[in-house]
Amino acid sequence: MQALLRPVDLGALRLRNRIIMAPMTRNRALAGDVPGALAVEYYGARASAGLIVTEGTQPSVHGKGYCRTPGMHSAAQVEAWRTVTEAVHGNGGCMVLQLMHCGRIGSYHNKDPGARTLAPSALRAAGKIFTDEVGPVEFDTPEELTLPEVQAVIAEYAAAARQAQRAGFDGIELHAASGYLPMQFLSSGTNLRRDTYGATLSGRLRFVIECVEALSAVFGSERVGVRICPGNPFNDMHDAQPLETYAALLRALNPLRLAYLHVIRSPDPALDAFALARECFDGARIFNDGFDLASGSDAISSGGAAAVSYARAFIANPDLVERAVNGWPLAAFDRKTLYTRGAAGYTSYPRYTLAPR
Ligand SMILES: Cc1cc2nc3c(=O)[nH]c(=O)nc-3n(C[C@H](O)[C@H](O)[C@H](O)COP(=O)(O)O)c2cc1C
User: Fold this and answer.
1) What is the pLDDT of residues 45-89, one digit of tens each?
2) pLDDT of residue 201
3) What's the CA-to-centroid distance between 22 and ligand 1, angstroms?
4) In angstroms, what is the span from residue 196 Cα to ligand 1's centroid?
5) Which of 101, 175, 312, 320, when mutated, tests ligand 1's pocket best, judged by the most ligand atoms within 8 Å of its CB?
6) Staple partner for 262: which of 62, 90, 227, 336, CB 3.0–4.6 Å?
7) Contact 216, 260 (CB under 8 A)
């Protein structure tokens, strides 16, 4: 347990402890895809985490896939996010924005009028997505990005990073997992391009590498992290050789000197993503998925992790770090209110209080 409580620097990010709040989409954004007062309270209450990674946030109107997710492309969004970072910094915390461009995972029902659904190749994902307007619908069939449009998307990431800097964030995380746009470029099943952003393994890596370079040009690479989950089939993903793809990706990322690599356990039992990260990535590694405090501590002491991130444990335990320090029990969360509007299941979970004697 003590290993989790020691401070650590991830690049230029100075963490008070190694218990990180993992990114979680909670679908509470208000009209204009703006985080509201509840988000200020929610994140502010969790500032004792060594680092907070925000919910996935779209860099542009086209990058939005789900309903009620926040953006980082309008002046109103920057102002709203500034109140969030002020609350977290006011409580001594550190916070990075996760940029999530959903690519083909989306529905026009969830997007602004005129916003497009874009992907490396025009392949519709199997499956359905929830919309407020009409309930679950099939994913849009995406338009294939032209070469200039690929470069325009990378420029949107850079513009969003500049906005994040104005909003007071300490850094940026590129969401390259869970079947969203960067993973759609990485994976052989969704990237059928014949140009320099596909065709070969190094072609499939190029979008992610250029995004990281663009984000680093804004924040400095020591404030940029990348999140991956090799071999994850979620959102209808398929890669013929995930081990080969991610080994090559991590080796290509090494010279860029990132703040951290955020690795989610692979659901493929034959693929040990943590071992892969240890072998191929030289910088600080954050491990995630299914850790409790004891196994998280072991991952740091002997597993090659610099820190461990927790998602579900933070939902009902805003004071997860204090509970860890004191050995207090953890509260359970309610699945029914994960993605619903309002305070219930979002800011309604109390801090631990000792029973009166
Ligand atoms: C409600 C919910 C929303 C999530 N949203 C995101 C997200 O926006 N971005 C992301 O990278 N992962 C997201 N995840 C995945 C988590 O960050 C994490 O990888 C996963 O829950 C496993 O970690 P845990 O065992 O500590 O919960 C989400 C998970 C949950 C439960």
Assistant:
1) 999 999 999 999 999 999 999 999 999 999 999 999 999 999 999
2) 98
3) 6
4) 32
5) 312
6) 227
7) no
Cα–ligand 1 centroid distance for 56 (angstroms): 10
CA distance 259 to 1: 24
Q: How many CB atoms lie within 10 A of CB 280?
A: 18
Number of Cβ atoms within 10 Å of the Cβ of 67: 19
Q: Quick one: tokens of 225?
A: 């992290």
Atom 30 in ligand 1: residue holding the nearest Cα: 24
pLDDT score, position 357: 63
The C-alpha atoms of residue 16 and residue 18 are separated, in whole angstroms, by: 7
Which pLDDT score is estimated for 356?
63
Position of tokens 């461990």? 308
pLDDT more than 90, % of the chain: 98
Residue 134 has pLDDT above 80, yes or no: yes
- Closest-CA residue, ligand 1 atom 7, reads 24
What is the model's pLDDT at position 354? 78
pLDDT beyond 90 at 355: no
Cβ atoms 99, 172 nearer than 8 A: yes
* Element housing 273 (H / E): helix 273-280
Degrees, nearest 5: CA angle 85-54-144 = 125
The Cα-based distances of 91 to 32, 45, 126 in angstroms read 27, 8, 43
pLDDT of residue 172: 98
End-to-end CA distance of the chain: 28
Residues annotated as part of the active site: 180
Q: Is the pLDDT of residue 226 over 80?
A: yes
Q: What is the DSSP string of 220-249?
A: -GGGEEEEE-TT--TTT---S-HHHHHHHH
Nearest CA to ligand 1 atom 28: 24
| pLDDT at residue 165, as a whole number | 98
- Average pLDDT score over residue span 105-128: 98
